[in-house]
Amino acid sequence: MKNHENLARISKLTATEKEAVTLIAAKQLEATIKIRVFNRGVKSNDQIIGHYKHYKAYFGKDKFVQKTKFKPNPKTRKTMTFETGWQGLRALQGRQIERVDLAYSGALQLSIQTFRNNKNIVIAITSEDGKLKRETMEKRYGDIFIPSKNDMRIFEDSILAAIEQVISKKI
Length: 171
What we know:
elongated; about 10% strand; about 170 residues; about 45% helix; two-stranded antiparallel ribbon; alpha+beta; 2 domains
């Protein structure tokens, strides 16, 4: 379908239908970004986020997703030592360690939500902890949560599919 045909179809939608189209496409964009970041470990420029660096680190029980894996140092009884840092902590708990993927406890992923803010549909990180994690990770690795070119292509396709759904009243 050509762009002018799409514009003609969009102009015939009611305000409620336009909002439905936007919400459907935004939810797809949210899912696409989450898959890219948390499953594939890829930044906004379609490059991997990074690799875990090896460094000696100490983690308290609060950093463990699986609390039963925490075996404190006999001396401190408050921390556990990892010669390979965050990578070691992740490996002990069965997380992948080949590349940074931001999937650890699931809290950051769950805090990314699509919602209506006044008359706008917004995709945002809704928790303060999640916002801090985003800021820290993007300072370290570069843009991660900005939609990539591929994310935007999928979003555009989602808009067209949602228009088709709305017009044919399948939603």
